[in-house]
Amino acid sequence: MLKVTDFDLRLLRIFKAVTDCGGFSAAESTLDMNLSTISTHMTDLEARVGIRLCERGRRGFQLTAEGRALYQSVSTLLDCVEDFRANVGALRGQIGGELAVGIVDNTITDARMHVAEAIRAVKLRGGDLHIKLQIQSPSEIEEAVQERRLHVGIGPFRNALPGLDYKPLYREDLYLYCGRGHALFDSAPLDIALEALGSLDYVARGYMRETKEVGGPVSFKATATVHHMEAVATLILSGRFIGYLPKHYARQWADNDLMRALRPDVLSHVAEFSLVTRKDRQPTIASQMFIDALLAHAV
């Protein structure tokens, strides 16, 4: 019979992190370990359990059939360990374990985003709670919640996925902007013909797909695709691109006349922000407190 020691738990956590990241190299920053150390730990784990867990080489990282089965067992085990830590903390009147939260980028300037207040409410209860806060795309957040790597996700989710529960939080207003030096800057915001916009260089966010989903009177010509809000802002500030930004995020440049909205009367859209959790996962005390604090501010 295999006796599970603290060292074994550490090896299992490394195995789970490597699998979640999709390979040894990808897991280096997550684990704060170099490639050689990770490889040694994985070899130790394979020797400990007596099975080959993954293939690594020119074809890339891939779990064996036994590795996939062990991964499911490891996920269940580590969830139970975290639940145990949380329950012991609750018996002492404290909050313990881990709270893993995923949010999309650059929401901190939105007064309707109350993540900081929710974290404060949880931490005021004391205990040895470890918080993991990750910035990811909406699809990455949903995937992580499904795979139990996150307790809670926050973002503008397009389509509800089976097995996940979505609760509305607030709405984010987005406007089309150009930067100082752009050909339309002096005419903004209203003295602009809509038909002139379709031929201009437009920056799209890969996960938002505005050119397909915003609709309206303009068909944009996407000549740049990025995956982070800051990259959109950088290209707009170059004076060569137009693109959508949340009003709260663009305000820091608009107030200094470095950006101007383009036809906000007709070219605006709304992102519906929701809180997502897994339906069949019992919330920990910490995650429930965090959720309750966020929903208390929902509009």
UniProtKB/TrEMBL annotation:
The keyword Transcription applies. One of its GO terms (molecular function) is transcription cis-regulatory region binding. Keywords: DNA-binding, Transcription, Transcription regulation. Residues 7-64 form the HTH lysR-type domain. The keyword Transmembrane does not apply. CDD domains: PBP2_LTTR_substrate. Belongs to the LysR transcriptional regulatory family. This is LysR family transcriptional regulator.
